[in-house]
Amino acid sequence: MKSFVAALAFAVVAAVGVAMVLSSIQEPSSVAFTTTGARVGDPGHNLIGPS
Amino acid sequence: MARVKFLCDADRCIECNACVTACKNEHEVPWGINRRRVVTINDGKPGERSVSMACMHCTDAPCAAVCPVSCFYTTADGVVLHSKDLCIGCGYCFYACPFGAPQYPKVGNFGSRGKMDKCTYCAGGPEADSTPAEYAKYGANRLAEGKLPLCAEMCSTKSLLAGDGAIIAEIYKERVMKRGYGSGMWGWKTAYSDSPTG
Amino acid sequence: MPGSLSILKFAGFKPLLGAFALLFVLASPAAAQLSFKPTAEAVQEDKLLNALKEGDKISGRVSIPDGSAANLIQPAGRDWRDFHRGKLPWIGGIAILGMVALLTIFLMVRGRIRIHKGFSGRTILRFASFERFTHWLTASCFIILALSGLNVSFGRTLILPLFGADAFSAMSTYAKLAHNYLAFPFMLGLVIMFLIWIKDNIPGKLDIEWIKQGGGLLYKGKHPPAKRFNAGQKGIFWIVIVGGALMSVSGWFLLFPYLPGNVTALQLWTVIHAVIAMLFIAAMLAHIYIGSIGMEGAFDAMGTGEVDLNWAKEHHSLWVEEEQKKAGAPSDRTPHAVPAE
What we know:
By secondary structure, chain B is of the alpha+beta class. In chain B, about 25% of the residues lie in helices and about 15% in strands. Chain B has 7 helices and 7 strands; from the N terminus they run E-H-E-E-H-E-E-H-E-H-H-E-H-H.
């Protein structure tokens, strides 16, 4: 039983940790697809909601 | 009821991107979201043609068919729209769309791409017509005001046509007959399999 | 010049002008019969579409940095849609429901596999706590991954009508997040399992014998000898490792779609992910069955780690001998009540 509960707890903690890591490497498309020649400030929030 | 479509006459398109600019301005489309784009085939070579492409509002829309949460719907005019409230941002519609219409605000995880955005034929979304809430989520609703999509209205050479499918097909056919050539009704066979020639 | 105006009043001026102009037209290279056709090499949509091979796309040049925008038409999306809404539900339905039916029939016909000599009351340690931890880590992640994955394939048809669009979407959002994030502890569990159990899962001659005797599944009282893992378990091990690896690789590319970068590759990964998933789930149903209701005494292996000695002697006789040799004494572990946990 202990190992089962420990496994569940570990899975949840790992998932939360992964969520935090993945959200930090997330990029809005305005940043990901901007070439060096362009300077994009705030691309606006219309259609995509607040970032 | 009229079944509306898009038709881009590639022999007239001069790649000016007025359609793209018009759409971007009308709906305040943020950088990184490309509702409409101009693709140039055989760029620089003889026979180069440019095609303005956005959502074609297909008859049997593949995006609607594959959506795991069924967030798409087709209006009586044949416009394919979707609900951003129901969208889970999974990306399936992008895999299915032959024209690459779905756009996502974020790059990265499958899940957190954000809500899908695409050309709405200037017909807004499920929110109430011409309200600020609708504008913030889906952009302007010109169809509710009896107007046609702005991209076609702004086309400098009238290569991009929008409106009743039968009428714009007729216009295109007249042009082809008069000038003696036409590179095809780009995307019609794929999008409107029930009426590929109008 | 005084005579210049009079030429304009000349009645035949216009026709003469027309005839004069015609001379230029007929004499020019682009004559009435256009020898040079400006649209001869123009791209034609139907020609391009017909020239496409399977999975190919019509693409061109765009000024947008996102490479996917350069694709004009990708007809493969239609085939992908047909597969996902046509063939895949059949594959999944037959695999999963077929397995459930098979297991039900097996339970009805063969019944629960009992310990022939009954419980001895003495136990032997089968799985250490770290092994059990790893198994349950992988297994519990698998359950959520399987359910959330099945929701993507079948939820719209089976669950949406029951709960309505808003509730179903909200549930699906959380399901999809759980799917994305639990995939990582699942992959970790797979790696650990591979490392700790690979040495006992190498196929050998004994396994052929075991398979020839049907694993004792079909006849009461038949107990072909086996070491720590019998051929059936080795099969499950390799299904989990290979299937899990395929799921992990395909899932990784779906999680980070900018890695393959193009829609055609992503379509292939979703097909692999979906088909392997259906088969994987079917296999795991059989594993769950035999480890719970299918065989008396089996669950203890992962439950407490201590299995009944008679059970062990009947199903893993050679392993029991090895373990007892290791322990030194010919006698078994001292009898004790199996703890309540």
